[in-house]
Amino acid sequence: QVQLVESGGGLVQAGGSLRLSCAASARTFSRYNTGWFRQAPGKEREFVAAISWSGSSTYYADSVKGRFTISRDNAKNTIYLQMSSLKPEDTAVYYCAQDQTLFRNRLSYTRDEYDNWGQGTQVTVSS
Length: 127
Hints:
Radius of gyration: 13 Å
Order of helices and strands: EEEEEEEEEEE
Structural class: mainly beta
Low-confidence stretches: none
Helix content: under 10%
Shape: globular
């Protein structure tokens, strides 16, 4: 199974920016849609953004639309989440996840359709 490793989390003030990365261990990663999810303490893991295997399509949760940008570099087996105008409510552990279906032709915001997860990276936004 492809290993996913997130990085780039940290502590930032409200209004600041961070860029998260998710590096995959195998080139087969480029054949799958990929998503970012987040989980705040005491809350369910929620969808943040997704990108198609080709990088041509993206989809965002309403809560981050216009502030976050998902992208991928298949040559580097890496996806990114550029986060700007961060708010304290963005504080969470952020996870990248690989869709369970090869070359799926639609983007999913449902956790159950992702079956390979990274270990997560903590993002803390102070007010």
